[in-house]
Amino acid sequence: MAKLYFRYGVMGSSKTANALMVRYNYEERGQEALLVKPEIDQRDGAKFVASRMGLTHPCIYFSEMRAMPEEELKHYACVIVDEAQFLSREEVQYLVHIVDDWGVPVICYGLRADFSGQLFAGSQELLATADIIEEVKTICWCGKKATCNARFDAEGRVLREGEQVVLGANDQYIGLCRKHWREGNLGPGFPRG
């Protein structure tokens, strides 16, 4: 039975690397997985998914997947969605349709919450509807589990206000434990904000 998965984690937790490895595992077993991302995500270039550790693979945009005929989409053994936090609620419901009505498993990777601690719309809908929710874990500079995404400025101050989405600014984000996120403490080597 097909299921909808939501695998979430903070910035730098290897979500995209995991997505690319899952795609490779399907390919290695002679099955084809469809790699998809929302069109808003242009940081790695158009129609490409790239992890920080150098893994890359072509993909299609979510809107292109939606335009595919049912029979073409059913051909895939799995749909893998990167940056799923950028999906709308309605787009997540389309993924539910793919799983429930067409029997194609869907694995979504993304952030749960933004730099200010607010849920993204796509993540909120995935948390409400996914069959399986899994955390992709990483650690804070202190060694505790990182659960918060911190955005910081050039002086190392943790920001609490601003646009929810700032693409291509990977060097301005870091995963922190809740305590250090609340304190605005980026750790040794950063000025305390």
TrEMBL record:
Keyword Kinase among record annotations: yes
Residues reported in the UniProt entry to bind ATP: 82-85
Binding-site residues, substrate: 165-168, 173
Top EC category: transferase
Annotated localization: Cytoplasm
Pfam families: TK (PF00265)
SUPFAM superfamilies assigned to the protein according to its UniProt record, in alphabetical order: Glucocorticoid receptor-like (DNA-binding domain), P-loop containing nucleoside triphosphate hydrolases
A Gene Ontology cellular-component term: cytosol
E.C. number(s) listed in UniProt: 2.7.1.21
Keyword terms, alphabetized: ATP-binding, Cytoplasm, DNA synthesis, Kinase, Metal-binding, Nucleotide-binding, Transferase, Zinc
UniProt similarity note: Belongs to the thymidine kinase family.
Name of the protein this chain belongs to: Thymidine kinase
